[in-house]
């Protein structure tokens, strides 16, 4: 059994939680801790773990777990709720690196992961989890590569492209209203197909991660309402020129 599987089984499952992600880390700058403060337990491995409760409403926590040399047990050390997380610093937005910082209401830690890949995976899952479970005040992700935050940006771009299309169609409607009678059907069909495609892409991307569904549904509804209003206006103008 891997260390991460053992942590989930020993630390989180007994409390009716499931671990979403974990990364083995070491401090960027080692703290000077008196011998008595550590209980003389010697070297240890540290893991930063992200977990969520199985029961609703869901509660997400970030936990520091340690395994001391010579022991097979994993021990909880520090724990924060996801709403206490204020900032995640990815250090370098241009390349993979193992370093990252976590800032909480009452703590600040600088970490180095076992590898850049482990760090990137953890930060990506942490970001998506924050988008789904955090309250209105979400943590700030700075100096993070776009690929780690890219899915939300991709979904956002779908809505932007949809808005651009609607504005273009409205301008086309005004500029060519004299020819609307023979072009009416193709314009309406094009509008409907494009809006539907954009909404389906946004819904699919969001459903894969289950994030910000409420907000997305509201924005999707707004876009569909705009499309419907456009179609009604176009049809009225078509009927007017037909007469």
Share of β-strand residues: 15-25%
> Percent range for helical residues?
40-55%
N-to-C CA distance: 78 Å
If you compute it from the alpha carbons, what radius of gyration comes out, rounded to the nearest whole angstrom?
25 Å
The gross shape turns out to be elongated
Quickly give the structural class.
Answer: alpha+beta
Quick one: biggest sheet? 8 strands, mixed
Could you explain the architecture of this structure?
With 243 residues, this protein is an alpha+beta fold. 50% of the residues lie in helices and 23% in strands. It contains 6 helices and 8 strands; from the N terminus they run αβαββββββαβααα. The protein has an 8-stranded mixed beta sheet with strand order 4-3-2-1-7-6-5-8. Helix 4 packs antiparallel against helix 5. The N and C termini lie far apart (78 Å).
Briefly say what this structure is.
Helices cover 50% and strands 23% of the residues. It has six helices and eight strands.
Structural descriptors:
elongated, about 25% strand, 8-stranded mixed β-sheet, about 240 residues, alpha+beta, single chain
Set down the secondary structure blueprint.
Layout: H1 3-12, E1 17-27, H2 35-38, E2 44-53, E3 60-68, E4 75-81, E5 85-89, E6 99-104, E7 108-113, H3 116-133, E8 140-142, H4 146-175, H5 180-209, H6 213-242
Helix pairs in contact: 4-5, 4-6, 5-6
């Amino acid at each position: 059994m891997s260390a991460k599987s053992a942590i989930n089984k020993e630390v989180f499952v007994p409390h009716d939680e499931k671990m979403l992600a974990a990364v083995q880390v070491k401090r960027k700058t080692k703290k000077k801790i008196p011998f008595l403060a550590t209980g003389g337990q010697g070297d240890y491995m540290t893991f930063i773990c992200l977990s969520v409760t199985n029961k609703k409403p869901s509660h997400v926590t970030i936990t520091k777990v340690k395994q001391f040399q010579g022991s097979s047990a994993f021990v909880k050390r520090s724990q924060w709720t996801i709403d206490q997380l204020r900032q995640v610093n990815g250090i370098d937005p241009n390349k993979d690196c193992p370093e990252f910082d976590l800032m909480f209401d009452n703590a600040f830690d600088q970490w180095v992961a076992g590898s850049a890949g482990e760090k990137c995976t953890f930060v990506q899952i942490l970001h998506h989890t924050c988008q789904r479970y955090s309250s209105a005040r979400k943590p700030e992700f700075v100096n993070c590569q776009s690929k780690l935050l890219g899915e939300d940006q991709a979904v956002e771009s779908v809505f932007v492209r949809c808005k651009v299309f609607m504005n273009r169609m409205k301008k086309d409607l005004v500029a060519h209203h004299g020819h609307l009678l023979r072009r009416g059907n193709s314009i309406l069909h094009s509008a409907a197909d494009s809006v539907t495609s954009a909404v389906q892409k946004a819904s699919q991307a969001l459903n894969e991660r289950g994030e910000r569904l409420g907000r997305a549904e509201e924005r999707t509804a707004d876009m569909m309402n705009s499309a419907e209003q456009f179609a009604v206006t176009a049809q009225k103008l078509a009927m007017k020129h037909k007469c």
